[in-house]
Amino acid sequence: MEQVAAAPSRWERFKNSDFIYYFVRDKVAMFSFAVFLTFLFAALAAPLIAPSDPYDLGSINIMNSELPPSWLDGGEPEFLLGTDEQGRDILSTILYGSRLSLTIGFLAVGLQLFLGIVIGLSAGYFGGRIDSFLMRFADIQLSFSTMMVAIIVSAIFKASFGSQFYSQYAVVMLVVIIGIAEWPQYARTVRATVLAEKKKEYVEAARVMGFKAPRIMFRHILPNCLSPILVISTVQIANAIMSEAALSFLGLGLPVDQPSLGALISIGFNYIFSGAWWITAFPGIVLITLVLVINLLGDWLRDVFNPKIYKG
User: Fold this and answer.
1) Cα dihedral 230, 233, 237, 239 sign
2) C or N: which end of the chain has fewer Cβ atoms within 10 Å?
3) What are the CA-CA distances from residue 292 to residues 109, 259, 302 (Å)?
């Protein structure tokens, strides 16, 4: 009597999926993912691997300010990438700053996801006046640039609650600001997918079985919208990090005592013409590299989930 073969586990199906097949054959995607994981690990492990704690004022010596990298004349071996104007180790501030930038990027995208999915599902599923109102509201917001919306909202926050309150809750404020500025991208994409999916047989079957609208939207239709959502999320993480960096550079982001990559670039820019180029150069290189690899991963995901343009 023949034995029935056991069904493959979820992990085995994932290993044998087209996603992994194309990933291991794309050197750019693998390299970008490895670099991103390196940045992520370094950011998470910053308290363990950073030479010093830039938040600990007791460990900062102002006499060490503006020291060049260790391989240049005047550099100190303990400060590999040099120090800033306060005497903080540049390598340490980059590690801690990367953690802040990535935290803001992921949380802001999470807020964009929540708002965009709820609004997009509601607009696409219910249609009619609800669809018209929500999409016109999204169109109005899209008519303004993301940075303009972020600047206006951050200025309103500062004027309403004061600079001290804003500095105390700067991370939360930036997450809210960037999340509010970018949700229409998700809403429009989800709505377009829902309009196609809600006409299919499985949705009609769910209605006949008496399932309520929220269950149909979130348990039946939403899983079929995940591919474009995943692609957008990858790109939006890079956009959120750049938005935070731009706001910090303009003085509307994180305070000086909470250095993100954007804040470090802004601080160093004031000293670049005095010869202390390393204060802004190294954080800038890290920011550009991080955004580049995330965008490369987003482009690869877009191609993989669109078989019409993916060449393998």
Assistant:
1) positive
2) N
3) 17, 21, 15
DSSP class per residue in 103-124? HHHHHHHHHHHHHHHHHHHHHH
Q: Is the pTM of this model over 0.85?
A: no
Residues whose CB falls within 8 Å of the CB of residue 130, separated by 6 or more in sequence, listed in order: 122, 123
Would you list the DSSP string of the chain? Answer: -PPPPPPPPHHHHHHTSHHHHHHTT-HHHHHHHHHHHHHHHHHHTHHHHSSS-TT-GGG--GGGTTPPPTTSTT--TT-TT-B-TTS-BHHHHHHHHHHHHHHHHHHHHHHHHHHHHHHHHHHHHH-HHHHHHHHHHHHHHHTS-HHHHHHHHHHHHHHHH-HHHHHHTHHHHHHHHHHHHHHHHHHHHHHHHHHHHTTSHHHHHHHHTT--HHHIIIIIIGGGGHHHHHHHHHHHHHHHHHHHHHHHHTTSSS-TTS--HHHHHHHHHTTGGGT-THHHHHHHHHHHHHHHHHHHHHHHHHHHT-TTT---
pLDDT in tens, the chain (312 residues): 445 455 566 666 666 666 777 777 878 888 988 999 998 898 888 888 888 877 777 777 777 777 788 888 777 888 888 888 777 888 888 888 888 888 888 898 899 889 988 898 888 888 888 888 888 888 888 777 777 777 777 777 777 777 777 777 778 888 888 888 888 888 888 888 888 888 788 878 888 888 888 888 888 888 887 878 888 888 888 888 888 888 777 777 777 677 778 778 877 777 777 777 888 888 888 888 888 888 888 888 877 776 555 454
Q: Where are the domains of the chain?
A: 25-55+66-304
CATH code for the part of the protein at 25-55+66-304: 1.10.3720.10
Q: What value, to the nearest 5°, has the Cα angle with vertex 148 and ends 143 and 150? A: 115
